[in-house]
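Course assignment 3, question 2. Fill in each field.
Student: A.L.
Task: Predict the tertiary structure for the chain below.
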Amino acid sequence: MPVVRDLRVLLRLRYFRRLLAVRLLSQSADGVYQVALATYVVFSPENQTTPGAIASAMAVLLLPYSLIGPFAGVLLDRWPRRQVFLYGNLLRASLASCTALLLLSSVPDWLFYASALCVTAVNRFVLAGLSAALPRVVDTERLVLANSVSPTAGTLAATAGGGLALAVGLLTDGSDAAVVLLGALLYLLSAMTSLGLPRTLLGPDRAEHHVPLSEALTTTARGLVAGLRHLAERRDAAYALAAMAVLRFCYGALTVMVLMLCRYAWSDAESDGLALLGLALGASAAGFFVAALASPWAVGRWGRWGWLAGCSGIAAVLEPALGLPFAPVPMLAAAFVLGLVTQGAKIAADTEVQTSVDDAYRGRVFSLYDMLFNVAFVAAAAMSALALPPDGRSVVVVGAVAVLYAVVSVAMLRHRHAGTSRADVTE
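Answer field:
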C-alpha cells in the first residue's frame, strides 16, 4: 500500500523519529496529568460535580493560558524550538512535582489550580512548537502523512498515559500524588530526548532580524497584529482555523456531557464512572488511529477541503443517531466516530495551515490556533453548564452540536467548490 510505503520512508528519517519521540513522551505525560486532574476534580468522592463546576475548572485551567498564546507565538518565532522542548519539559517536570506535594499537603483548591495552571501554560509553548517544527524534518510531499502520524500518535500516547495513570492509581490506592509524579518523570524523559535534535535544526529561520529576548514581550502586540495580518492574507489557512474552532466547540460540549453521564447516569460508584470514561477515551483513541490511516488516502482522493467537509458531515449524521439514546454502548460508538472525524479534520486543517503560512510566522499562527481551540472548548463547557441537567442527558445539546457539524460541512464544500472555480478561471 502507498501509505504503508510512505510511512516506512517517514520513519527512516532520523530527526522525524526523534521529534516524534519528544511528542510521544510529552503527550503521554499530559495524559497522566490530565487523568490526575479529572480524578481529583470530577470523580473525587468528596466533590459533588456539576456541569457548572466542570465549566469553572476548564475556565480556570484553559482561559488564562489561552491569553499566553500570542506571547508563545512571538517567542517561538525567536527562540530555538529545540530549546523550547528541552526547558519547557524540564520546567513542567518541576511544576508537576510541586503539584504532587500540594496534593499531599491538602492545600486549598485555588492553590492546586494555580499549580496546574502553570503546568498547562507551558504546554502551549511545547505543542505549538511541535507543530511549527514538523515541516523542518519532513519534506512537503509527505507532510500530510506526517500530520497523520505525529498528532495522532501523540493523542494515542496521551490516551496510553491516561490508562497508565489509572493503573498507577489502582496500585497506589487512589493516590493522585503518585500519578502526578509519574507525569513529572515522563516530562523529564521528554526533555532528555529533545537533546538528540540539533539546536538549530527546527528553526525558526534567522534571515530576519529579531529584537533581543528582553524586548520580545514589549513587541507582543505588534507581533500578534503581524500574525493576524499574515493570516488574513492566507485565506485558506483562516478558513481552516475557523472550521476547527467550531469542531472544537462541538468536541467540548460532548466531552462535558460524557463526563456527567459517566459520573451520574451510568454508574453508582465513582470508580465505575471513571472506568466508563476510560472506555470512552479508548474508543475515541481508536477513532484517532483510524483517522491517521485513512486521512492521507482521503486527502489524496477528495482534497483537504473535501475531507474536512466529509468528516463534519459524518459527525452531523452519526453523532445524534448514536448519542440520543444516552446509553453506554451507542455512546462508545459515538466516541469512536467523534475521534475519527475530529482527528481526520485536524490532519487536513493542520496541513493547510502549515503549507499556507510562511515559516517566520508559523509559530504565531499555531499559537493563535491553540488559543482558538481553548476558547472554543471553554465556551462549549459554559454552554453545557447552562443546558445540561445534572445527569448529562440533553437532547438540546446533542441537536445543537449536530447542526454545527452540518454547517461546517456545507461551508467547507462551498469553499472547496469556490477554490476549484478559481483554479479553472486561472487556467
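Instructor remarks: The chain is about 85% helix and 0% strand. The two ends are 33 Å apart (CA to CA).
Grade: pending
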